[in-house]
Amino acid sequence: MNVANFMSRQVVTVTPKTPLHEVWKIIFKKHIHGLPVVDERKKLLGIIAEEDLLAELFPDYKDLEEALGKLDDDEQIKEKLSKLKKLTAEKIMSRRVVFTRPDTEVMRALSRMIVRKVRQLPVVDDDDRLVGMISKSDIFRKLFNR
């Protein structure tokens, strides 16, 4: 059994120029854990995980502590929001993507997800074009619904 038999072929993607607010809407309204970033030929350029987005929006603890002391400064808050609005997918995506191929044995893909601690993998062809996504739940659903 290979990945092609388990993967989802209908994949929601964004381009590098997709604005942050659109990325946010897609990830949280559609409950997507990993959003592939592709070019016009569907070549996989990167991926945005929920965690990447949250890290961009919410500073680490030390930065948060400093920011809390400045919350009464409306100009600083407006400036921070203005900077966030200018972010695009290419600024927040991870360029090192763990992926798999359609002909990969499905248990090998599952092993890769477990070892790399990811919920899903983009599936790319030999030209690095996105052809699907496979998640742990896709695999378990098919294996146990037989």
Automatic annotation (TrEMBL):
Spans through the membrane: none
Keyword rRNA processing: no
CBS domain boundaries: 7-64, 93-146
SUPFAM superfamilies: CBS-domain pair (SSF54631)
Family annotation (InterPro entries): CBS_dom, CBS_dom_sf, Diverse_CBS-Domain
Entry keywords, A to Z: CBS domain
Pfam families per record: CBS
Keyword Ligase among record annotations: no
PANTHER family with a match to the protein in the record: CBS DOMAIN-CONTAINING PROTEIN (PTHR43080:SF2), CBS DOMAIN-CONTAINING PROTEIN CBSX3, MITOCHONDRIAL (PTHR43080)
Record protein name field: CBS domain-containing protein
Organism the protein comes from: Candidatus Gottesmanbacteria bacterium GW2011_GWA1_43_11
